[in-house]
Amino acid sequence: MKKSALSLFSTENLTRLLWGAALLALPVTSFRWFPFLGEGTLVRPLALYPLALLLPLLLIQASRKKLNLYWTGVFVALGAFVLFVVFATSFGALINPIPLRGQTYLGRTIRALATLFIGLAFFISAVWMNKEEADFRFTVKWILAGLCLDLAWSGLQALTFYTHWLEKEMVTHWQLAFSMRELVRTNRVSGLAYEPAWLAGQLATIFIPFLFAAVLTNFRLTRVKWLEPVLLALSLLALLATYSRGGLLTTAAAAGVTFLLLGGDVIRAIWTWFINGFRGGMFDVLFRISMIIAVLGVFAGTILFLGQKNFFRRLWETDAHTLSEYMVNISAGARGAYSSAAIAAFEEHPLTGVGLGASGFYMYQNLPDWSLTTVPEIARQLNPENRLYPNPKNLYIRLLAETGLIGFFLFAAFQFNVLGEILSLLGRKEPWARFAATAGVFAGLGITLYNFTQDSLTTPNIWLVSGILVGLAATSSQKEIK
Question: Which residue range forms the structural domain that includes residue 71?
């Protein structure tokens, strides 16, 4: 009895418990109870708590030779990027920009480097905790468990917004117990994330890739065959309820490209079934015609549903004559202005950038003229009483501005290394490996597009799935060498 209790709380079981807890907590992106953080720090992943205990345990196990931590070639590319970021940030200190609203260069760069290392913690943990099929199944099951919690809270928000069963003020108090933000006033579902766009980003880069891959490859993690299709349908409904333009376009593009690249067998089977139906009786022909009408009806219904929100409808209902006018009309003027200002900072220091986290010091003086009079958010930012620090809202532009061309290309090299590792899993004949590779391709495409609309290096979205697939591929390579 004592031995079984000790084995239950062994280091190996404890690491799996902490990893599962981190995955379960993924949906909570802005956890209220973090020490030493100001109100302006919005990216606060709850998963960081179990992760902070997990990494030291893994290192202790490795030092005692009880765990073999594989080192993959991706770490070389990632290490080169991190080392250059540190160099570029040190070089930026020589420029030493004028403090902005109480923010100094040293303070911003220390904070930015901390966010980078938090992101690296998610990536490295994912690599080391996924070595074989059993680890991968464990990981995905806990990811889906976190998704179930997210969908449950999203459903609660939807009931609050669109029925009279729950009072909005009461649910707001519930949410503020763990989140930095109350319910969204425009009745857009945000789940356990800070805002609807963050929930849409999670769905597009973490949750939907695994569900889509399960349906496409007909791979199931449990004996419940309907689980993944039902979760996929509910996730798509939650995605629609966010009304996030970026999230919807990212998901649609990633799903379409993944389907075309890796769904050849499914495409041929569907086409054969569809064509053969027209060679049968009238019932078969009518059934296939009704299927076409149903699919068109789903697309039309989706557009009508999204068109209920004015900010979504403005995408196609606009009288703008220039690109800047169109961006302002669709409420993207602030993003365009910030990106344009960050590009100006990049042009001043194209090779090394201005230092990680320092682009905001150069943005206000480089804002385009059209944004100063037509974008209300810019006017609020320029108010002397405003204490917010600006950021580029685009990770690629941020890397160009803060790490220059060298840092940007090193980050791109890291991403291509990750892609290579993901595609290497397609060479394995096991069904789970094809499922993993399909999910990785979907997530990789989603992350690539998602980074055009966000600039944080802390968010687990851009690190987690990549780390999982790199860990599986690295272990496979080691076994082949042996």
Answer: 10-34+41-277+309-317+393-481
